[in-house]
Amino acid sequence: MIAMITTAARVLCGRLFLPPLLGAILAAVVIAGAARAAPTVPDTVIWEEGIEYSTPGGESLKLNLARPKTGEGPFPAVICIHGGGFRAGTRDGYDQLCVRLAERGYVAATISYRLAPKHRFPAAVHDTKAAVRWLRAHAADYSVDPERIGVTGGSAGGHLAQFLGVTSHVPRFEGDGGNPGQSSAVACVVNVYGPSDFTKSYGKSVDAHEVLPLWFGGNLDTHRDLHIQGSPLAWVTPDAAPTLCIHGTEDAYVAHEQAEWLIDKLKGATVEAELLTLQGAGHGFKGADAEKADAALFEFFDRRLKPKR
Asked: 179 with 216: CB under 8 angstroms?
């Protein structure tokens, strides 16, 4: 369906003789509209939308949440973080994954966060940490086990998920988004083609020269310090969360080597880390690649978050 929408948008752009960048933006808007369709929710799942979890600077940040209707809790939980180059995207894109996770016995939430260029780094980091703290503070309300919270995301969302996994010990990134008495630590991370070292993104990504200056307020020449601070690779310690990276070899937006560097550094710090490489896959998995990625994600969370039997 997404492929058909993308093709239609490209055809329309061609007929209107729009420049490639505007064409890409139109395609993204059409796809985003499709992603906002209501998820299919089975009778076994409770679905709630638009729950406010933080109000930084008076801006209401919300999440959608799926949870099992029956069963003995507390349940493990997964927070899903959407991509979009830190400047676009919506939480609705992960609605269906949250429902699928709830069917498997998880409480799953997909969150909104503040976007660039209005909100620069580390605003989005502050928001994701606020979401973890909120879920922990409301664990009893949603039958969540506060010791078993995992996180996943794709692209920019993969970066933010990974950042949660490596900075639980760094107070400067907590922000003031609420529930300060709660921890923002996560038990594990599934990072789907998220970048790990922004200082090496330029020239290896088709849009890093556009995206990163918006998020950091400047490019590598003028804001190298922020590019380093914003790179998960710079914060890896033995306290980092166990991680699964899923990445395609033909990714034009985030080079596959970014995942290799991260996994190597995590292993060097004695952190359990795994890399699923999808040969020939690009940025945004389809068909068999999407099925393999989903299966690996479910297996990793089951192994890391569900009690041993």
From this structure: no
Q: Are residues 58 and 119 in the same domain?
A: yes
Which residue in the block uniquely carries the two structure tokens 């190298």?
224
Whether residue 279 sits in one domain with residue 215: yes
**CB-based contact 193:246 (threshold 8 Å):** yes
Residue whose token pair is 């638009």: 50
What is the C-alpha separation between 129 and 164, in angstroms, rounded? 7
User: What is the domain-level CATH number for residue 161?
Assistant: 3.40.50.1820
The total number of structural domains in the chain stands at 2
Percentage of residues of the chain with pLDDT beyond 70: 88
Q: Cα torsion for 23, 29, 30, 35, to the nearest 10°? A: 140
**Whether 105 and 217 share a structural domain:** yes
Residue carrying structure tokens 């010791």: 147
pTM for this entry? 0.89
Q: Which domain holds residue 295?
A: 42-305
At residue 144 the predicted structure's pLDDT band, cuts being 50, 70 and 90, is: very high
Rg of the chain taking only CA atoms, in angstroms: 19
Q: 132: buried, middle or exposed (CB in 10 Å: 19+, 13-18, 0-12)?
A: buried
Mean pLDDT of 189-203: 98
DSSP 196-262: S-GGGTTTTSSSHHHHHHHHHSS-TTT-HHHHHHT-GGGG--TTSPPEEEEEETT-SSS-HHHHHHH
